[in-house]
Amino acid sequence: MSSTPPQPPQNQSQAKIDSSSSPLKLDTGRSTFASEVPSLVQDEPETSNEWFGPVSPIKFLAKFLPAPPGLPRRPNFQRQRWRNIRSDAKKKFDMCYRFTKLLDRYCTNLELKVTCGASNDINWTHQTGLIKVDVSVFSKNVQLERTFEVAQLETFFEFKRATAFNDDVSEGSPFEKQAKNSQETRAQLATYAGAMLATQFRTHAFCVEVAGDYARLIRFDREGAVFTHAFRYAEETHLIDFLWRFNHSSSEIRGHDPTVTVPSAAESRFVKQATELLPLKSWERVWKFSVYDEGSKKTVVFYGGANPFSVSVSPFGRSTRGFLVIDIHGNIVYLKDTWRIDMEEMQKEGNIYAQLHEKGVPHIPHVVAHGDAGQQKTLSRSSFPDLFKPGEPSHPFQHYYIVFREVGRRLTEFRTTHELVNAIKDAMKAHQVAYDEAKILHCDISSGNILISEDGKSGFLIDWDFSKPVVDCETPREHGITGTWEFMSAELLLGNATCHKRTDDLESFFHVLCWVLLKYGPHSLTVETVIERLGWIYNYVMIYRGRSKGGTHKERSLRSRDMRRAAGLPDGCLKNLLVDFEDLVAVRYDHRPSPKARQQYDELAALANYDEKKLDRHPIWKYDKFLQRLEGWDWIYERFCEATRDSSQLSDARIDREQELAAAYVKDMVTERTEGTRSMVIGSKKRLADDSDSQPTLSKKRRR
């Protein structure tokens, strides 16, 4: 096995399967951040309440970076040289350079580089100069292709004039300082750590904040970031102790995932086969994934790694990634790499699929293997319980793999509108049967969770890990709100709902159809119009005091039946389907008929002998009829069946507007940052539940 810890390639191609709905916070690739770091992608409100501390540096090292067996005696602490380090240092570069020179003797296996003048991009964020670390630490046995590569980063140092945290925590002085520069520093640290986790195979990451004469040690994992007290680095040895231990620690202690390795020479035939069968780019490496399968109680290996699609740059949350891999027999399968919330009430996704298949649910994938990665549970909260109030919710994350037999195309990669509508139809059928027969509610209908089969003839509904069991046809066993922001119902986004209902998922199917059609459908809308409608209806989110709210414009659009016009579709089968679907879901937001109007209608209906042919144009008849249809899905499902029976009616090809939309979007974001917009953040919010004080709780969360 190579001594170099594995990192996935930084340039990442498009995956066959999109689980981009899985990361659960604001989509950091599209959030606004008005900052002196103008390209920063991580919006600080998204990290609020994810910072835990302060803790003693001694306890921090003992817990997270214990002295390895046989640790050599470290070189002496040159206190006087450290005391003089800031003298005549006029620029940040001077401080960075002096630090690297003084710390170099503690890094026999590492290389420290001043990189404050270099940047590295993460191509899926559509922003340049995003990652710009002051001092980078790399393994000496790594060959860098350029000055700075976040995919090879071991740890990093950031230099600031003032710290972003308080050590004297009180009710009126929280640990997270609220000054603008403090918020920017936290956003920057989180973005850099998140970029490490996104471009490498890691369980956690370390970094150091240096502010004037003080430093802090920081450890990130998917649950949060633990900070130490600020200490004087010229008087105390915590900094050099950290680096000396880090230098001599194993790659696993440093944060690298041991379940993903470089294949050995004896496995070269699998590497060759993966290269031939998978859509790997010339620069993409073949990795070996070791998955413990809870069904067979054996470790199953897979080879590949074609393309983690665009993932969240947030260091916190589930960070789901997908890979195309082969098994030892050469079968191409899909491997989902995620961090599940480790709570008794939440079943593992593999077990949920077993229940669904037992009840005969159609149009769902088959599980090849699934299981937890051993000894890979987050430690941020459990390591220092004294930081939290008694009974305060704690939701650790557990690294988890699940491998599927089916490999499909993303819904957004439909070839014709018939494929699009047919895949949504099949996903609706899967949802219906799961709800009626297995008593399971999906709770996260999104464009990323509907796949098209390779032959284009069917669809799959995936990503059941946030589904909920239901006691009966209406009442979820546990109250909670989850979903992918763009596709969540207006009712949920507005905070008016106490629990997630089947009608919320039905509305989400409607939003999926409209969202995909706006981006790729057969219309002649301008790019500016598309971006405006996507942002206003689907991406709108208001963040105030750490709480997120949306849905205002989505509700308004439904109530006015606006999408039939806004989607810009030509007359025909597709538009007729959209109109009927809109009428169905919009009835949730229509005003109830007044008692007087209801009485008048009842009298009219009696005179007409309740003949629907005579009443079907009456607004109250329509209101009652659509409410009735909303309770069961048979009517709208049959409308989808009618639309797809003749494929010639839905023969329009997909229109690829991706590059135009991305270019226009970045331009818009730069303008917004220049104006310093803060009251309203337009971004894409991923998987959330209700925002109870921005704290992750099952009955709600902002599920990450």
Globally, the shape reads: globular
Cα(first) to Cα(last) distance is 34 Å
**Structure classification:** alpha+beta
Number of domains: 2
Topology:
Elements: E1 51-55, H1 57-64, H2 79-83, H3 92-103, E2 110-114, E3 135-139, E4 155-160, H4 180-199, E5 205-211, E6 214-221, E7 224-228, E8 231-232, H5 238-248, H6 251-254, E9 260-261, H7 268-277, E10 287-293, E11 298-306, E12 321-326, E13 332-341, H8 349-358, E14 367-377, E15 397-404, E16 409-410, H9 417-436, E17 440-441, E18 450-452, E19 459-461, E20 468-469, H10 490-493, H11 502-520, H12 527-539, E21 540-544, E22 547-549, H13 552-559, H14 563-566, H15 573-586, H16 595-607, H17 612-615, H18 619-631, H19 634-645, H20 658-675, E23 681-682
Parallel strand pairs: 1-7, 4-5
Antiparallel strand pairs: 2-3, 3-4, 5-6, 6-7, 6-8, 9-10, 10-11, 11-12, 12-13, 13-15, 14-15, 16-18, 17-20, 18-19, 21-22, 21-23
Helix pairs in contact: 9-11, 9-19, 11-12, 11-15, 12-20, 15-19
